[in-house]
Amino acid sequence: MAIILDKNTRVIVQGITGKQGTFHARSMIEYGTKVVAGVTPGKGGQEHLGVPVYDSMKEAVKETQATASVIFIPARFTYSAALEAIDAGIELLTVITEGVPIKDTAKIKQRVQEENVIMIGPNCPGIITPGESKIGIIPGEICKQGNVGIVSRSGTLTYEIIQNLTINDFGQSTCVGLGGDPIKGIGFNECLKWFEEDPQTEHIVLVGEIGGTGEQEAADLVKTEISKPVYGFIAGQTAPPGKQMGHAGAIVHGKSGTAQEKMRILSEAGITTVKTPNEIPLKIKENI
Amino acid sequence: MPMLYEIEGKQLFKENRIPVPKFKAYDGVSSIKTFAEELGNDIMMAKAQALSGGRGKAGLIKKVKTSEAEDYIQSILGRDHRGKPVDLVMLEEPMEIENEYYLSIMLDNASSKYLVLASSRGGVDIEEVAEKYPDEIYKDYFSVFSEPQPYMFIDLGKKLGFEARTLTSFTNIMTNMFKMAQKRDLTLIEINPLILTPDKQIIAADSKVVIDGNADYRQLDIANLKSQRDRHTDLEFEADQSGISYVQLDGEIGIISGGAGLAMATCDLLEFYGSSPSNFLDVGGGADETKIEKSLEILSRQNIKGIFVNFFAGITRCDDVANGIINASKKYEIKVPMVIRLVGTNDDLGIQILEENGINAYGKMEPAAKRIVELVKGGN
Fold first, then answer.
1. Domains of chain A by range and CATH?
2. CB A74 within 8 A of CB A50
3. CA distance B312 to chain A (A)
4. Does the beta-carbon distance from B182 to A103 stay under 8 Å?
5. What local confidence, expressed as pLDDT, does residue A251 receive?
6. Residue B5 has what DSSP assignment?
7. What is the CATH code of the structural domain delimited by B22-94?
8. Of A166, B172, B221, B279, whose CB neighbour count within 10 A is largest?
9. What's residue B31's pLDDT?
10. Which CATH class, in words, describes the domain spanning B240-376?
11. What backbone phi and psi angles, to 5 degrees, belong to B233?
12. Which residues of B fall within a CB distance of 8 Å from A213?
């Protein structure tokens, strides 16, 4: 089992012939991901990394029956690439690209909601189901198949936490890097619910950051709907308070709060919170 | 989130046909009289331009006579406001007020829609209004794909009490404001107060505008405004020009990391082990050697006691990080102890490069963080 992604997921790499696309598509293929096609407009008909390249997503989907795509394309072209993937009928869209204008992301998000597409990112490391498949840039060698589900707003910090778990012999069911942008595809709550339903997952690790209110919403969900043990870490405990912004956000959603406040809210919801990433395996051990 | 100065926001308002009072920028005191003549008024508002709030309470906004304006401007130029000296003052036409409103449009993260908020209790702390009179703040969500038209805001205008000619003015202002948010990639436009004058003009008496830094490439004029230079310290600005996200803190150990989450966790860890970070530094995803080199060059100029380089490379490559470190240590004088932690993509290559140059790298971040703290605290 695991969530979202498994060894049978057929994946298209958008931007496969670029520098980043090539590097990470190769690493995905080596990991075992079923990369069935690449798309680079103008390079259709070529073969790259042993995979056929198409000019458009529509052609690639038609020829390969892929259900997932991953975007390694510069920020200014990401909007168009994402809409192209959605229009081609992709069900799982992962956007690795950093620096996508927020308005573009909001538009992509509306379209994925209308079409019931699962979007991960943008500005994210992607997703890995250890031993089966990965989409994105999470280094496969630090992962190990197991029963800990990870959902994180961070990229590199997620690797840190995965590696600590693996070294301590705790494998992972699926690790999802949600991305660091204010508007993004799926969030903590979708993943928490999927992990709750997933028979392979026995422990859930939630990695948050300062800013936004996703952690608070996750705490509310954990209180009522999640029975599996959840462990939480929030980065930014030493970060200085942000500069004063407008008031509109605070009126609608309340204050987003410091790392300390978020930790307190997670604790109150019954989540085991830790002060450093390497404490997570220790807490899981205590819990077993 | 990058904010604009009030005066820059008002310039954008003007360009987008949102009525604003007459205004002029001053970084000195010349030609005040000309402006007074243009206004045909001996009274004007003098407002220091700052990116932090609380100007009114700090005495940086004042109604002055033309004869007093020069002295007042001179008294506030150079004055510190929350860590930044005032170097720009706006003189503005004073407005007669019949009523004050609150009006904002934001790209709402939770709904990924545009959200319009409005209240006829403007001119005061709107968060307090929201607490005391939640029913008197009107909310309206609009799709990001909306093509704003005046009719969409008639209900809202009526709720605020506008009628006849003022209703038309309001719906036009709202339409222009919405279009401006879309066209200029703004994540927030807040007007508090929006003023109704006794002769039934609706005018934006203040402006708070937040831009989207990710859209800088297609909003070059906004990206080059003075506020976007001033919101950074000189060092932060220099780093930003190289694509490095740098925030000055007041601790003793300089850090270099990749990814905001890990960079924050790196800072947290130094504090956990009893020291403190002197900065936050995130080279961003896919950083090359030159960014690493530049980061070390920046730190080599700081008054710090140690450097902690912490990478868990995904899209970045450890060989690039290692080469950047080697290049920098040849070019710049790094006088303080440095501890490097390097794992992830191509870490075998990166570690090899470092070892060839006599540098050892740690594989785990906790022992590495502990080590740099020990070195800085004078241990061995």
1. 10-120 (3.40.50.720), 126-287 (3.40.50.261)
2. no
3. 6
4. yes
5. 61
6. P
7. 3.30.1490.20
8. B279
9. 84
10. alpha beta
11. -70, 170
12. 110
